[in-house]
Automatic annotation (TrEMBL):
Cellular component GO terms held in the UniProt record: nucleus
Sequence segments annotated as region (Disordered): 90-118, 175-200
Signal peptide: none
Organism: Rousettus aegyptiacus
Quaternary structure annotation from Swiss-Prot or TrEMBL: Heterodimer with MAFG, MAFK and other small MAF proteins that binds to the MAF recognition elements (MARE).
SMART domains: BRLZ (SM00338)
PROSITE patterns assigned: BZIP, BZIP_BASIC
Taxonomic superkingdom: Eukaryota
Biased composition (Low complexity): 177-198
Full protein name: Nuclear factor erythroid 2-related factor 3
Length: 454
DNA sequence: GTTCTTTGTCATGCC
DNA sequence: AGGGCATGACAAAGA
């Protein structure tokens, strides 16, 4: 006991029962480490570094400490944690993000023949005669004038009510070397489809050419492009921007939407269909009509001279100019508009689902992170509670130590059951009867409650 | 036969 | 005003 008894007495007797907090701590700090039954302030562990870190981290993450500990986090809240409510995960990294639903027309053709427009293929292709007969129309059309196809388009527009069988005969007679487009690629709306188109476009010198020639006949949904020589000139509008473009697209684009996987495998494209899709596709390959989508079948039935892909992907200006420049019946126009709307919406739906998936994945990540953070905060809370308990215990010992030294005016020990140490806001410490403390506390509590209500 | 998933479509609202 | 986009809801097909 290093603090003199007189010191305390002087303070307690001389100044009434007032003991400043400073004095109290002077008293405490002057105690040997083993005083207070072996517990001193030095034993109180500093506020755990991790706690500070935790607090900082709490602040850093803008997480309310208590809330973060006690609240579960739902997906919506987790999503709202994003400051700008945007996706933090790079969708491209997260998914393959084939988010370029509109691949360029004619961008990559795997058909080497396409690199030789205007070339007579028969001079280049080292194929035997029967293969030549089975070459698709696309293979043979490169040498033809674009304007011819312009006319073809117009003619097919004029085939409203035309007998498809008659047109088919035209193809048969021309032995598949009419000006059908087949070998363009990447013209589809969805990525999956565009991938397929890439492969589909690359028919190369497949042994399946024979089977593919049938698809060639179905190339454009309007699919009937009679042999140019058998057509009369209806109207020459090759000088129109869109018309020329469109005609050219008909030449270069693959309007075959579903080709046999075996044909795809023989190409230089590395893309391969998923096993599921291949099964589905191969199951339907013998039924060419079933190969076509509903809109493709409808378009085919109405002899729409453009592929569904073109209708969907065409810029609005071109689309409108197409509708105005071409003679189209109301039914055709209506169908074309429907096809365009549905096609656009299909792509939008695909993108929407992709986004939704990304959002869900991001939220799952957020949930994981927040759970980890919650665990950290829980651990920190346990450490805080431990430190608080140690502090309480030390105060308890200090309290009893003080009372063991206190003496009243007559030199008698002060009964700790009758008196209490009260620390005031101004730093002063008073020894007051317990009745006053309890009544004072009650008043304080009531006052606090009133203030809280207000 | 039931359930789940995928995909296309429609309706609607917003830009 | 028209077109496109986003998205919820529904249905069909397939696993």
């Amino acid at each position: 006991m290093t603090v003199s008894f007189v010191f305390l007495q002087r303070h307690l007797n001389g100044t009434g029962t007032s003991l400043s907090l400073e004095d109290l701590f002077q008293l405490l700090s002057s105690q040997p480490e083993n005083s207070l039954e072996g517990i001193s302030l030095g034993d109180i562990p500093p506020f755990p570094g991790s706690i500070n870190d935790g607090m900082n981290s709490s602040a850093h993450y803008d997480v309310n400490f208590s809330q973060a500990i006690s609240h579960d986090v739902n997906l919506h809240e987790a999503m709202l944690l994003c400051p700008d409510n945007t996706l933090r995960r790079d969708p491209v990294a997260r998914t393959s993000q084939p988010q370029e639903p509109f691949l360029q027309f004619n961008s990559h053709t795997t058909n080497p023949e396409q690199t030789l427009p205007g070339t007579n293929l028969t001079g280049f292709l080292p194929v035997v005669d029967h293969q030549m007969r089975n070459l698709t129309s696309q293979d043979l059309l490169h040498g033809l004038d674009i304007n011819i196809f312009d006319e073809i388009n117009l003619m097919s527009l004029a085939t409203e009510g035309f007998d498809p069988m008659e047109l088919s005969h035209l193809f048969e007679e021309s032995d598949s070397d009419s000006g059908l487009s087949l070998n363009s690629s990447q013209n589809s709306t969805s990525v999956t489809k565009s991938n397929s188109s890439v492969c589909e476009g690359a028919i190369g010198s497949s042994s399946d050419l024979e089977s593919l020639s049938q698809h060639a006949l179905e190339g454009a949904v309007g699919g009937y492009y009679p042999e140019p020589s058998k057509l009369c000139h209806v109207d020459h509008r090759s000088d129109s921007g869109f018309h020329g473009d469109l005609a050219f697209q008909h030449i270069l684009h693959n309007h075959t939407y579903h080709l046999e996987p075996s044909a795809l495998e023989s190409t230089s494209q590395s893309f391969s269909w998923p096993e599921k899709s291949q099964k589905i596709r191969s199951r339907h390959f013998n039924d060419t009509d079933r190969n076509l989508s509903r809109d493709e079948r409808r378009a085919k039935a109405l002899h729409i001279p453009f592929s569904v892909d073109e209708i969907v992907r065409m810029p609005v200006d071109s689309f409108n100019s197409m509708l105005s420049k071409y003679y189209l019946t109301d039914r055709q126009v209506s169908l074309i508009r429907d096809i365009r709307r549905r096609g656009k919406n299909k792509v939008a739906a695909q993108n929407c689902r992709k986004r939704k998936l990304d959002i869900i994945l991001n939220l799952e990540d957020d949930v994981c992170n927040l759970k980890a953070k919650k665990e950290t905060l829980k651990r920190e809370r346990v450490q805080c509670n431990k430190a608080i308990n140690i502090m309480k215990q030390k105060l308890h010992y200090l309290y009893h130590d003080i009372f063991s030294r206190l003496r009243d005016e007559e030199g008698r020990p002060v009964n700790p059951n009758q008196y209490a140490v009260q620390c005031n806001h101004d730093g002063s410490v008073l020894i007051i009867p317990k009745e006053l403390v309890t009544s004072g506390n009650k008043k304080e509590n009531q006052k606090g409650k009133r203030e809280r209500r207000n």
